[in-house]
Amino acid sequence: MEKPLAYRMRPRNLEEVVGQQHLVGPGKIINRMVAAKMLSSMILYGPPGTGKTSIASAIAGSTKYAFRMLNAATDTKKDLQIVAEEAKMSGTVILLLDEVHRLDKTKQDFLLPHLESGRIIMIGATTENPYITINPAIRSRTQIFEVKPLTEADILTAVDHALADKERGLGDYPVHMEENARLHLSRATNGDLRSALNGLELAVRSTPPEEDGTIHLTLEVIEECIQRKALTHDKDGDAHYDVISAFQKSIRGSDVDGALHYLGRLVEAGDLAIICRRLMVIGYEDIGLANPAAAARTVNAVLAAERLGLPEARIPLADCVVDLCLSPKSNSAYMALDAAIADIRAKGSGDVPDHLRDSHYKGAKDLGRGLEYQYPHNFDNAWVDQQYLPDKFKDAQYYQPKATGKYEVALGQQKNRIEQWRKESRQKPR
């Protein structure tokens, strides 16, 4: 049986890797390691289908080392021993160890000395956060790199390569894919290249050719083969972003019916990941300090939706959307941060005042670090007037509270009290 398209199109070297240019692009860390022939074991973590196996395969192809693949959950210690024996016989072996977070103590203890010696270069792959799920003994012997979801452009590039490649891809098939079908394939798979390529192959091989022999891939064909509906059958594909934009703007504008309408369209399209991400953004961008509890409830609703999956996920999502629509709104905190970032970009960072600098190391006092720091808890109201900003920013004011929710009103009142304390402090004789 022929291997799936996603398997056949795995990159043979780093130049063929789609996406992840922050790791494999020219001058980036993995590219440098390969160029210098200074490979070390690593853990790649990120969502499924984003290129963890592809990067391992490309590293092996670029270095010409032997490449083996095992699964930490299902393969045995004996399988690891076979790889270790091969490494002794032929030199370095690159081992892709999938689900590395499932590595038990027996396999780990066997593997550690081989990682230490460099005979086995392990590339662990996981969808879990390695800082939480990977044993410290393994973590300390590896570099940890995050693999990010592929962009729409990345998916389109890979799809086009697969359609053109006559050796490994679908280049021998006379395929014509409508542009809206192509865009839907790149967007509806949410950065999962494996799903996009496997859906493409199913579409090509299961679609009867037209009278002229052409295999015509329409939006409806792609929808069926990836089991994801398009938001609407528009020609240029902009509806994907238009609906998401309208969804957020309806919530921001406190229009419950509009927000539920666009939520319904996203649910019908099966875009659970997009809904969850957008609601998290809305909770902190548009509601913010006007109602922090609503933002926290959004997190809980998203967790419940992800755990439930569609169609039941629509229930906590509906609760969340109504809650956010009717909540008071404030963007004051992130607008304040953006103002601070703009200031830094315009003026540079500035020196941290000496009294705020770290004073816990030997010689800090000789440098005047932390000597005049005043501990706020030693003063009334746990507040004392001292400079916190660098000199070039010392008069800057970024946060401007809004009066759209009880919580932020209280924050504004406290800010005003602190400003009054500062004014009184500076009027006292020194």
From TrEMBL:
Keyword Iron tagged: no
UniProt-recorded name of the protein: Replication-associated recombination protein A
Pfam families per the UniProt record, alphabetical: AAA (PF00004), AAA_assoc_2 (PF16193), MgsA_C (PF12002)
Cross-referenced PANTHER family: ATPASE WRNIP1, WERNER HELICASE-INTERACTING PROTEIN 1 FAMILY MEMBER
Gene3D superfamilies found in the cross-reference section: 1.10.8.60, 1.20.272.10, DNA polymerase III clamp loader subunits, C-terminal domain, P-loop containing nucleotide triphosphate hydrolases
InterPro entries named in the record: AAA+_ATPase (IPR003593), AAA_assoc_2 (IPR032423), AAA_ATPase_RarA/MGS1/WRNIP1 (IPR051314), ATPase_AAA_core (IPR003959), DNA_pol3_clamp-load_cplx_C (IPR008921), MgsA_C (IPR021886), P-loop_NTPase (IPR027417)
Molecular-function GO terms, alphabetical: ATP binding; ATP hydrolysis activity; DNA binding; enzyme activator activity; single-stranded DNA helicase activity
UniProt keywords, alphabetically: ATP-binding, Nucleotide-binding
Family affiliation: Belongs to the AAA ATPase family. RarA/MGS1/WRNIP1 subfamily.
Example of a GO biological process term: DNA-templated DNA replication
Keyword Hydrolase listed: no
Domain AAA+ ATPase residues, every copy: 38-150
